[in-house]
What we know:
6 strands
Amino acid sequence: MLGTACAAKFLINIRVQGSFLFAAQRGTMQEIYLFENTGQISLRPVTADTEVDAQLLQAAQEDNFDWMEPMFAGGDSELVYMTAFRHPQNAGGAVIVISGGGEHMFCVLARTNLDLVSAASHFSSMVSNIRYGLDIFENISGDDD
């Protein structure tokens, strides 16, 4: 329980400061996907036929996640990072991947809490690997020692 309280305090502090979680530019979300983990990851574009919580879809379409509960953030705010938000009344939520310039690159919706945690894990790993790859590239000296 202590870990959850610390994480919540961290996310609240970030939210109040207006950085990292909410530093992104608002606009119309261009790419919205549905994440499902059925033994393997399924990531499909959301269409008019996709069954998804209406509030989640509206939040993604309007690029407005202020009403949702911040759950997790990871990555490098100067390169690329992700944030995960939990639906406050229902299962599921959204993961947003944001560029270092603050642009919301894409949003992934999850219908269940398991899918939300899986999506957060998947995309936090992705943005961490991008940072790690850049660190390696930046540290190449060109010497053959």
